[in-house]
Amino acid sequence: MKKVIIAPSILSANFTALQHDIKIIEDAGAEWIHIDIMDGHFVPNITIGPVVVKSLRKATKLFFDVHLMITNPEKYWREFQKAGADIITFHSEVLTDKKKLIEDIKSTDIKVGISIKPATQVSEIKDLLSYLDLVLIMTVEPGFGGQCFMEDMVPKIKDLRKIIDKNKYKCLIEIDGGINSKTSSICIKAGADALVSGSYIFSAENPKDAIESLFI
Ligand code: DX5
Ligand code: ZN
C-alpha cells in the first residue's frame, strides 16, 4: 500500500499542553499537523484563531495544514498565512468566487486547498482542480472531533481519484473525519493521499502506534 501523509488534528489534543502533544506526534513521525479553525457560524463550534497558530509556529517545524471552517475565509485567510500556515484550505460552500481566493492565497508562497462537506459533490469543484494543491473531503459533518466515519463518502474519494489521475492534476486528496486503523485503509484503497486523524491518535495510549496503524 502506498505511503500516505498523516495529519494529526490538534482539535483532540490537550490544549493545556499543546507543545507536549505536538512533540509526541513529531516523535511519532508525523510530518503534518492539522489545525481546525471554527467560527461558531459556518459550524456550531469555536476553536482557535491566528494568535494561537502564531504561537504554535514557534514550537514546531511541522507542516501546518490549516482547515478553515469559517464563513468568511476571504476576510481572515491572510492572518493565518502570516501566522505560519503552510496550506490554507477553505470550504467550497461559503464562496461563489472561489477562483479569486485561490489566486490570492497562491500569490503568497503557501499552498491552497478546498474542502467539501458531505452533501457537496465533487462536481462543484471539478473546474478548480488544476489550480488546487489539495481537496479535503469531509467524512463527517464538520464541527466536532470524535464522530463516526461516513462510509457513503467513499465513492466520492474514488471519483475524485479518477478525475485527478485522468487529467494528471497534482492536487492531493485529503480525508477528514472518523479516521482510525479500519477507516484509513478504506480511504487509502479508494485513493486518499493524506489522512486527518484526531481523537483516534490523541486518545490512544500510544499515539505513535496509533499513527503507524493508519498506514496499514
Ligand atoms: C471536524 C474536523 C476534524 C476533526 C477530526 O470538523 O475538521 O479535523 O478534528 O477529528 P476525528 O479524527 O476525531 O474525527
Ligand atoms: Zn479538519
Shape: globular
The tally of domains stands at 1
Structural class: alpha/beta
End-to-end Cα distance, whole Å, is 7 Å
Q: Going by CATH, what is the homologous superfamily?
A: Aldolase class I
Strand order of the largest sheet: 1-8-7-6-5-4-3-2
Using the coordinates above, name the CATH class.
Alpha Beta
CATH topology: TIM Barrel
Bound molecules: D-xylitol-5-phosphate, zinc ion
Instruction: Please indicate the percent range of residues in DSSP E strands (runs of 2 or more).
Output: 15-25%
Provide an overview of this structure.
The chain has eight helices and eight strands, in the order E-H-E-H-E-H-E-H-E-E-H-E-H-E-H-H. The chain has helices at residues 18-27, 50-59, 73-83, 98-106, 154-167, 181-190, 199-202, 207-213, and strands at 5-8, 32-38, 63-69, 87-91, 111-116, 134-138, 172-176, 194-197. Strand 7, helix 6 (181-190) and strand 8 form a beta-alpha-beta unit. Helix 2 runs parallel beside helix 3 (73-83). The model has no long low-confidence stretch (mean pLDDT 97). Bound molecules: D-xylitol-5-phosphate (DX5) and zinc ion (ZN). Residues 9, 11-12, 34, 36, 67, 140, 142-147, 176-179, 196-200 line the site of D-xylitol-5-phosphate.
Short descriptors:
single chain, 216 residues, alpha/beta, TIM Barrel, 8 strands, binds zinc ion
Short description:
The chain has 8 helices and 8 strands, in the order βαβαβαβαββαβαβαα. The protein has 216 residues and is an alpha/beta fold. α4 links the parallel β4 and β5.
